[in-house]
Design a protein that fits this description.
The complex is a heterodimer of chains A (611) and B (545). Chain A contains 23 helices and 18 strands. By secondary structure, chain A is of the alpha/beta class. Chain A folds into 4 domains: 91 residues, de novo design (two linked rop proteins), CATH 1.20.1440; 116 residues, Fumarate Reductase Iron-sulfur Protein, Chain B, domain 2, CATH 1.10.1060.10; 156 residues, 3-Layer(bba) Sandwich (FAD/NAD(P)-binding domain); 147 residues, 3-Layer(bba) Sandwich (FAD/NAD(P)-binding domain). Chain A has a 5-stranded parallel sheet, with helices on both faces. In chain A, helix 2 packs antiparallel against helix 3, helix 3 runs antiparallel to helix 4 and helix 9 crosses helix 11. Chain A is globular, with a radius of gyration of 27 Å. A 5-stranded mixed sheet of chain B has the order 2-1-5-3-4, with helices on both faces. In chain B, strand 15 and strand 16 form a beta hairpin. Chain B folds into 4 domains: 115 residues, Ubiquitin-like (UB roll), CATH 3.10.20.740; 68 residues, 2-Layer Sandwich (Alpha-Beta Plaits); 132 residues, Rossmann fold; 158 residues, Fe-only Hydrogenase (Larger Subunit), Chain L, domain 3 (3-Layer(aba) Sandwich), CATH 3.40.950.10. Chain B starts with a strand and ends in a 16-residue tail after the last helix. Chain B is α/β, with parallel strands linked by helices and 545 residues long. Classes of the chains: A alpha/beta (611), B alpha/beta (545).
Chain lengths: 611, 545
C-alpha cells in the first residue's frame, strides 16, 4: 500500500453523515412533552457511542452513568442514585481526556440540574412529572400558543375549502390573515414532518387560505349578557380578547390611543411585510361583531383608570411594549437620533419621510432592526446596520436579514456603538463604533462580545435609528397602584392580585414577544374574563374536517414562496413575498402527516372542537 | 354506497362503514385486538393492517376511512408478515399462561395467534410485574395488559369517570389510574365495564371462590345462596344449555348438588324492595313540589358509589332502600334464623350476581352486626366454580327453590334490565293509588333500548314523571340537566351498566358483543310465565322495616 492514500473512511461515510443530519433534525422535532429523563438517557447513549475508548472516565464511566439512568427509568433506582449520578458525572467532566467525555458529562450534569424534580419523582413515586405527551398529542397544535387546529385547516386547504379553513382558524385566532403573513410560526419548530425531511410551510399555507377565501362572515354572537368590558389597547392582544368576548355575548369597548387600530401589526410591521389592506380584512371581521371602538383615546392616569373600573364589569390591559429603550450613549438625545419604534410608527400613521440622499445607521439585530433598515432603504436612504454580535447571533428571522442585505443594507458585525458625534446645530454628524471580539458563552448560553483591541470606527451618518429593545409604558398604571415588574404588569392569566376584574396580557406582561403570543394572551383573557363574570360560553365551529386514508410516503422538498425582484421591490412599500401557486399549495399541503389522526392524535380525539 | 375492490372482487358498502367492517362483511377474516366499534378505533395493535393500493405503508383497517375506488389486499405477504410480527411483539410483553388464566376459553389472544401463525417467544420476553392491591374487588394485572386502551375509552365515554388513563411515557407507556393514586382512592364505581371490555385478563374481578369452597366445606356453617335475575339469563350460555334447559329449577338443583343447603331467588328480595320502595315513593311524592329534585333509586351499588364521589349533595335524594340482595340477606339472618331456630352467626349467605360492585356491599356495617350477604360472586366466578365440579347438568333432576323465600312475582325478575325496576315499582304504585292491578302493557315503553328514557303516567289523576338512565355518562347528563332545571322528574332509576344488570360488570361476556339486548327478552318471558305479576301479591312477602 502507498504511503499516502485518499480513503481513510469507510466508503459509505457520506451516507452516514447524511443520517446524522436526519438525526439532528429529528432530535429538534422531539415532541415537547416527552419524558425528559428518557431523552437524557437516550442522548447519553448516543454520546457514549462516540467514545474512542482510551480513557477510563469516558469508556467506563459513561456506561455506568447510563446504567444508573436506566434504573431510574425502569423504577429500580434508589434514593441515593441521584447523588451518585451527580458525583460520577462531575468526575467524568473533571478527568476525561477530551471533549467527547467532558461535554457528555457536562450535558448530563446540566440535565440533572434542570430535571431534578422529575428525577426525584421517578425515583420516589415512580411517576414521571415531565411527560405530558398524552395531553399534547398534535405537535404543531401544542406548540402554537393559541392552539390553532393546524392539521384541520391544512387538510381544508388541500380540498380547496378556503372559506372553511378561515372559519376554522378564527375559532382560535381572529387574525387569520395577519398570521399568514407575519407569524413567527413556532408550530413549524416541532412539525413531525421534520423527521422525514423539513417542516411544512404552515404559515405560507395559511396565507394561501386567507388570500383565496371569499369574505368569510364571523359567527353570530351569543345572547347578550348585559356585561360591559373595557379593553385598553387595540393591538392583536386586545382585539383578540375583544372579538371572543363579543362573540360570548358581552359588550366590549376598545380604547386605542393611536389613530388606527392594529397595534404593532400596523405601527411596527411595515407594509411590505404585511399590507394594510390585508390587515383591514381581519379588522373588518373582528369589528363586524359589534365591538365599540374609540381611537385617539388614551387611558391616561389614575382618574381614567378608576372610571374604567367603575363603568365596566372587567378591564383588559393590552397596551403592548412600545417605549424605546435607551443605551445612554453620549449624544443620544441629539436631533437625528430616533427610536425604531417611533420611526416605524410614523409610517403607521401614513407619514413617509423623504430620506433621499441620507445616510442612515440602524443599531440592533432583531426583526425591528430589519424592519427599520428596509423601510429606510425604501424611503431613499443608504443604510448600514451596526450590531455588537455576529450575523449568526442575530435574533431576526434569517429571511429578513437576507432581504435586508439583498436590498442594499450593509451589516457591520461586532460593532458596538460608542458615542454619537454632532455638529454645531446639535444634529447627528457621525457614529463612533467600538469593534468587538466574540468570546466565551454567557449565562444565557450566548457567546458574549467584548471590546476588541482595535481602534474605533468612524461612520458618517445623518440619522441613527436605535432598535435596542422596548419597554412597557406602564408608569401611570403603576401610579394607580398596579404591581409592576421591570416596567411590565405583574399579572397571570387569572388577573392581577388585589385588582379583581382587572386583567392584562401580551407584550405589556411578558415584555416584547410575538404577535401569536399576544393573540394567545387575548384568547386566554377572554376565557378567564368570561368565567370571572360567572359564565362559561364555549367558542366552537362546526366545520367538518376531511379525513385521510393514508399518511404521505417519501421525502419531498419544502415549498418556499418567491419574492419580488430586489431592484423593483426596494422602490416601494408593496408586498415583497409572492403568493404560492395553486400547484405549490396543493403539493405542500399534501405533505402534512395528519398527526390529528395518526399517532396519539387518534386516541384522544385529535382535536378540540370547542374551548 | 361506496365501491371498493377487495382481493380483486368488486364490493359495494355503506358510506359509514369502516374498512374493517367492509372487509368482514364479505366473509373475509381479519384479526383485530384493540378494535371496539364506536368506542376504540385507534389503530394501536396493528393486527388488523391491510394493504391498500396507493401507499407503501400498511393501513389499520379499523380506522382507515373508506374512499370510492379503494383497492384493498387483505392477505398480501406484507400484511400477513406484519400481523404475525406485531402479534409476536404483543406476546413478548404478555405473561402467556393460558392454563392458569381466567380468560382461558374466552380470549382472543390464542385465536389471533393461531390465525396469524404467531409463535410465542419469537422476541425476548419483557413482561412487567404485577403490583396491585389484591383485596380490591377490581384487579389490574400489568403482566397481561396489551395496551389496547379500551378501558380508558369505556370509563371515559360510557361511564364519564375517567378512572383509567395513559401513564408513563415512551416505551414505559402503559395504563394506570389517572392522577397516579391507588385504585382505592379513585372515584371508581366498581361497575366492572372495563373488565367486560378488556381483551385479556389484565382487568378482572377478585376471585372469591376459595372463600366459597371453605364455607361449603365447613360442617358448622349452613350455606344459603341467592341468584339474581340477570344471572338466570346468562349462566346457561357457558354450558351450552338452551334457555329451555337452563331453568331456575335446574340451577337450584345444581346449587344443591354442590353443597348449598338453601337456594333462594333474589327476586324474592326484589319483591320486598318493591313493597318498601313504593311506600317510600308515595310518601315522598305526596310532599313533593312540582320542580323539586326527584327520588333516585338506590339499588345499584355502583350508582351509589358514583353519587358519593360525584354528586354527594344528591345523597338525600336517594331512596335509601337497601338493594334486593341485602334485603334478602337481612331477612335470612333475622327472620329466617329465628323462625328456624338457627344461630345467625352460623348462617353463610352467598349471592350470585351480575354485579362487581356487589362485592363492595359485603361489608359489615359495624364489628357487632353481621353482614347481610357474606360473599358476592359474579356470574363468571360462579361459572368457573361450576366448571371445576364437572357436573352432568342435563341429567340432574330439577328442584324448586326453598321456602320460605321460594315464591316471587314476575315483577321481581324485571329488575334485571334498565327500566325494569321502574316498571315493577309502578305496578305496585298503581295498585296503591287505585286499589286495582294495572294492565301489564301500560308500562312497556320502559322496555325500550335507550340510554335515557322518560315517561309520564297519569294514575288516578296523579301525574307521575319517571326517567331511566343506564350508563353513568347518561346519568351524569341527566343530573346536569336536572341541576340546570332543564328537566324535572318525580322518580329516576339509574343503572350504572349499559342495559342494566343483564349487561352487568359481573356477567359472562363475548369480545366485541353487547349481550344485554339479547338477554332482556328472557326476563320478559319469566314475567309472563309467572302466575304472579305483582310484588304486593306475594303471599310470603313480609314487610321488613
Amino acid at each position: 500500500m502507498s504511503r499516502f492514500t485518499l480513503s481513510s473512511f469507510p466508503p459509505n461515510q457520506d451516507v452516514f453523515d447524511s443520517f446524522y443530519q436526519d438525526l439532528s433534525r429529528r432530535f429538534v422535532a422531539t415532541p415537547p412533552n416527552i419524558c425528559q429523563v428518557d431523552m437524557l438517557a437516550s442522548s447519553l447513549q448516543m454520546m457514549y457511542a462516540q467514545t474512542c475508548g482510551k480513557c477510563v472516565p469516558c469508556r467506563v464511566g459513561l456506561g455506568s452513568l447510563q446504567d444508573m439512568l436506566q434504573s431510574v427509568l425502569s423504577g429500580k433506582a434508589k434514593p441515593d442514585t441521584l447523588a451518585s449520578m451527580e458525583a460520577l458525572t462531575k468526575t467524568i467532566k473533571d478527568s476525561a481526556d477530551c471533549a467527547i467525555g467532558t461535554e457528555a458529562a457536562d450535558f448530563v450534569l446540566r440535565g440533572l440540574k434542570e430535571c431534578a424534580e422529575d428525577f426525584l419523582s421517578h425515583i420516589k413515586q415512580k411517576v414521571c412529572t415531565s411527560s405530558r405527551i398524552h395531553q399534547t398529542t398534535v405537535p404543531c397544535v401544542a406548540y402554537c400558543p393559541a392552539h390553532i387546529d393546524i392539521p384541520g385547516y391544512i387538510s381544508l386547504i388541500h380540498e380547496k375549502r378556503y372559506d372553511d379553513a378561515v372559519k376554522l382558524i378564527r375559532k382560535d385566532n381572529p387574525f387569520a390573515t395577519a398570521c399568514g403573513y407575519i407569524c413567527e410560526h413556532p408550530c413549524e419548530e416541532k412539525c413531525r414532518r421534520k423527521m422525514m425531511d423539513m417542516s411544512l410551510n404552515i404559515r405560507v399555507l395559511k396565507r394561501f387560505a386567507t388570500d383565496h377565501a371569499q369574505n368569510v362572515s364571523t359567527p353570530p354572537c351569543a345572547e347578550p349578557t348585559g356585561k360591559k368590558i373595557a379593553v385598553v389597547g387595540g393591538g392583536p392582544g386586545g382585539l383578540t380578547a375583544a372579538y371572543f368576548l363579543q362573540l360570548m355575548g358581552h359588550q366590549v369597548t376598545v380604547f386605542e390611543k393611536r389613530k388606527y387600530l392594529g397595534g404593532m401589526l400596523r405601527y411596527g410591521i411595515p407594509n411590505y411585510r404585511f399590507p394594510r389592506v390585508q390587515l383591514q380584512k381581519d379588522l373588518d371581521a373582528i369589528l363586524s361583531t359589534g365591538i365599540t371602538i374609540h381611537t385617539e383615546t388614551e387611558i391616561d392616569g389614575l382618574s381614567d383608570f378608576i372610571r374604567l373600573r367603575q363603568d365596566y364589569d372587567a378591564v383588559f390591559l393590552s397596551i403592548g411594549s412600545q417605549l424605546d429603550k435607551k443605551l445612554k450613549l453620549e449624544g443620544e438625545d441629539s436631533q437625528g437620533v430616533i427610536s425604531a419604534i417611533d420611526f416605524l410608527a410614523e409610517m403607521g400613521d401614513n407619514h413617509f419621510s423623504d430620506l433621499q440622499g441620507k445616510k442612515v445607521v440602524v443599531i440592533g439585530g432583531g426583526n425591528v432592526t430589519m424592519d427599520a433598515a428596509r423601510s429606510a432603504i425604501r424611503l431613499g436612504a443608504s443604510v448600514q446596520i451596526a450590531y455588537r454580535r455576529r450575523k449568526e447571533d442575530m435574533t431576526a428571522l434569517p429571511e429578513e436579514i437576507e432581504g435586508a442585505i439583498a436590498e442594499g443594507c450593509e451589516i457591520l458585525e461586532l460593532c458596538a456603538p460608542a458615542r454619537i458625534e454632532t455638529n454645531e446645530q446639535k444634529q447627528v454628524k457621525a457614529l463612533w463604533l467600538q469593534p468587538q471580539i466574540i468570546g466565551p458563552y454567557d449565562a444565557q448560553n450566548r457567546p458574549k462580545p467584548r471590546n476588541a483591541d482595535l481602534p474605533e470606527i468612524h461612520l458618517d451618518c445623518d440619522i441613527i435609528i436605535m432598535a435596542v429593545g422596548q419597554s412597557t409604558d406602564s408608569k401611570r398604571f403603576g401610579e394607580a397602584g398596579l404591581p409592576l415588574k421591570w416596567d411590565n404588569f405583574q399579572a397571570n392569566e387569572t388577573g392581577i392580585e388585589n385588582f379583581p376584574g382587572v386583567f392584562a396580557g401580551g407584550d405589556c406582561v411578558s415584555g416584547p414577544a410575538t404577535v401569536i403570543r399576544a393573540i394567545a394572551a387575548g384568547k386566554s383573557a377572554a376565557a378567564h374574563i368570561d368565567e370571572y363574570l360567572g359564565y362559561r360560553h364555549l367558542i366552537g365551529t362546526d366545520v367538518e374536517i376531511p379525513s385521510t386514508p393514508f399518511a404521505p410516503v417519501g421525502a419531498c422538498g419544502k415549498v418556499i414562496p418567491a419574492q419580488r425582484p430586489c431592484e423593483e421591490r426596494k422602490q416601494d412599500f408593496e408586498l415583497v413575498e409572492l403568493n404560492l401557486s395553486l400547484e405549490e399549495a396543493m403539493q405542500e399541503s399534501s405533505r402534512c402527516l395528519r398527526c390529528d389522526h395518526f399517532g396519539l392524535g387518534g386516541l384522544k380525539g385529535g382535536r378540540n372542537n370547542q374551548w | 354506497m361506496v365501491n371498493l375492490t377487495i382481493n380483486d372482487q368488486s364490493v359495494s358498502v355503506s358510506k359509514t362503514s369502516s374498512l374493517l367492517d367492509a372487509i368482514r362483511s364479505q366473509g373475509i377474516s381479519i384479526p383485530s385486538l384493540c378494535y371496539l366499534k364506536d368506542l376504540n378505533e385507534i389503530g394501536a395493535c396493528r393486527v388488523c393492517v391491510v394493504e391498500v393500493q396507493g401507499t407503501d405503508y400498511l393501513v389499520p383497517s379499523c380506522n382507515t376511512p373508506i374512499k370510492e375506488g379503494m383497492v384493498v389486499y387483505t392477505h398480501s405477504e406484507k400484511a400477513m408478515q406484519a400481523r404475525k410480527t406485531n402479534m409476536e411483539l404483543i406476546l413478548s410483553q404478555h405473561d402467556f399462561q393460558c392454563g392458569k388464566c381466567v380468560r382461558m376459553g374466552n380470549c382472543n389472544l390464542p385465536k389471533v395467534m393461531g390465525e396469524v401463525k404467531a409463535k410465542k417467544d419469537s422476541f425476548p420476553p419483557n413482561i412487567p410485574p404485577m403490583d396491585w392491591n389484591l383485596q380490591f374487588p377490581l384487579i389490574r394485572d400489568e403482566s397481561k395488559c396489551i395496551k389496547c386502551m379500551r378501558c380508558i375509552q369505556v370509563c371515559n365515554k360510557i361511564q364519564s369517570l375517567g378512572v383509567w388513563d395513559l401513564i408513563g411515557s415512551g416505551q414505559h407507556t402503559t395504563i394506570g389510574t389517572s392522577r397516579h393514586c391507588d385504585i382505592e382512592e379513585t372515584n371508581c364505581s366498581l361497575c366492572g365495564q372495563c373488565i367486560t371490555h378488556c381483551p385479556t385478563s389484565a382487568l378482572r374481578e377478585r376471585d372469591d371462590n376459595q372463600d366459597l369452597l371453605k364455607a361449603l366445606e365447613d360442617p358448622e356453617q349452613i350455606s344459603a345462596v341467592q341468584i339474581s335475575p340477570a344471572v338466570l339469563t346468562s349462566w346457561g350460555e357457558a354450558f351450552r344449555l338452551s334457555p329451555e334447559e337452563a331453568t331456575q329449577e335446574r340451577l337450584s338443583a345444581v346449587l344443591h348438588s354442590i353443597g348449598f343447603d338453601y337456594v333462594f331467588p333474589t327476586a324474592f328480595g326484589v319483591d320486598l324492595t318493591i313493597n318498601q320502595e313504593s311506600r317510600k315513593f308515595l310518601d315522598f311524592f305526596s310532599k313533593k313540589k312540582e320542580n323539586d329534585l326527584p327520588m333516585f333509586s338506590s339499588c345499584c351499588p355502583a350508582w351509589l358509589r358514583f353519587v358519593q364521589s360525584e354528586y354527594p349533595e344528591l345523597q338525600t335524594q336517594l331512596s335509601d332502600t337497601k338493594s334486593p340482595q341485602q334485603i334478602l340477606g337481612e331477612a335470612l339472618k333475622t327472620q329466617f334464623a329465628s323462625e328456624q331456630n338457627l344461630d345467625p352467626k352460623k348462617l353463610h349467605f352467598t349471592a350470585i350476581t351480575s354485579c362487581l360492585a356487589a362485592k363492595d356491599e359485603c361489608k359489615s356495617t359495624t364489628a357487632d352486626t353481621l353482614a347481610d350477604v357474606d360473599i358476592a360472586l359474579t356470574a363468571r366466578e360462579f361459572i368457573r366454580f361450576l366448571k371445576s365440579k364437572r357436573l352432568d347438568f342435563k341429567n340432574i333432576p330439577q328442584k324448586p327453590y326453598d321456602s320460605p323465600f321460594a315464591t316471587h312475582s314476575g315483577a321481581g325478575v324485571l329488575f334485571g334490565y334498565a327500566g325494569g325496576y321502574t316498571e315493577a315499582l309502578l305496578r305496585n304504585i298503581y295498585f296503591s293509588l287505585t286499589k286495582e292491578n294495572p294492565p301489564l302493557d301500560l308500562f312497556y315503553s320502559l322496555r325500550e333500548d335507550q340510554g335515557w328514557k322518560e315517561a309520564e303516567f297519569i294514575i288516578k289523576d296523579k301525574k307521575i314523571k319517571v326517567a331511566v338512565v343506564d350508563g353513568l355518562a347518561n346519568a351524569r347528563k341527566l343530573i346536569e340537566a336536572l341541576l340546570a332545571k332543564k328537566v324535572s322528574y318525580d322518580f329516576v332509576e339509574v343503572m350504572a351498566c349499559p342495559g342494566g344488570c343483564v349487561g352487568g360488570g359481573g356477567q359472562p361476556f363475548i369480545d366485541g358483543e353487547e349481550l344485554a339486548g339479547k338477554r332482556k327478552p328472557l326476563l320478559y318471558a319469566l314475567d309472563e310465565e309467572n302466575s304472579l305479576h305483582f310484588a304486593h301479591e306475594n303471599p310470603t312477602s313480609v314487610p321488613i322495616n
